[in-house]
Amino acid sequence: MRQAGTIIASITVSVALVILILSFAIDINKVKLPSQANGTHTGYPVWHPPVSGTDKEEYAATIIYSVVLMIVAGFYAFKWTNFDAKTNSKLLTYFVDREVNKVPTIEFDRYLASYCLVTSLTGIIYYLIDIGKIWSTVGILHNVNEIIIMVSLHHGGRISSNSFMPWLILYVLFAGALSLYLEWPYDALWFKVQGLCSDYALVIQFTRLYFNTRKEYGHESHQRLFDPERTRHDNTSGENPVLESDTTEDRAFGYFRPDYTLLLLVLASSVHIIGNIFSTIWIYKLSSYLIFSFTYCITYPLYAYFVYLDTHTVAIPPAQKYIILPDNSTPKVYLVTVSSIFLSLLTAKLGVLNQ
């Protein structure tokens, strides 16, 4: 029954996608192409028209602020994953697939940390030269990280396919070449659409991850926060804390449901896509780019906070720290893919209609 529902949904979205693509073809000669602004520091044409709004300093400050937060988030996310898994095995979380294969989430956490740092680099270039062809040579790395995250989830939490790297290189060459050599505004439209595809796919996959795990664990609290700096107190003697005999249980406190951490992934990816929607639809408003930049101040610290909770919680026996991966069968993958493409093109279509 579920398989039939997936097939019906796939057909419906596919038909809607075809209609949407045809609508682009019909409107291509009716839409007035926007003029192209020049970069603040380089003078080269950039991927947006001249925008209305006078507070450019506020906009620049928001970009710098987001870069600082992303660097800090990435640094600490990497730091939190740097612990001895053998002596702190209770801190490990495991991805579990349909075949009950278990893979530690540490590698996934490091992908998120890398995602923060790489995106901070794109933010620095964004501030210096604005978004355009030159920026795309670095901006493509942001999309690469999103693909790595999604592929790792598809493969059970770890990228094990030897063919992945050639395909990734092919994507970089193909997507980068179109961004460099298409004329305005198709270069910007192409980069935006393919970037939105991965953004929407992340939201969908993280949401599926959340509901799968929530369904498995129910409404009980199975985890406690672990503080490695918290000392053990000897309640019987009343003496000072005894550091030598610290145990995991002594330094665990607070209770919460394990699926709550996954809500951070859903929230982070959703905030990111909201910012992208604003900057895609309202391309003449400085406020939309301001919102877009500010969402980075929220999204990437949330990813880092997920890493913190993932590496600083212990399960309450007999429960274990599991994240239940969604079904990665071909019909499901197709539905997620075609839905992401449809939502991406729909967002672009709304931007075209708002000219």
TrEMBL record:
Basic and acidic residues composition bias: residue spans: 222-236
Region (Disordered), start-end ranges: 222-244
Keywords associated with the record: Membrane, Transmembrane, Transmembrane helix
Membrane spanning stretches: 7-26, 59-78, 111-129, 135-153, 165-182, 260-282, 289-308, 333-352
Top-level taxon: Eukaryota
Listed name of the protein: Uncharacterized protein
UniProt source species: Rhizophagus irregularis
Record lineage: Eukaryota, Fungi, Fungi incertae sedis, Mucoromycota, Glomeromycotina
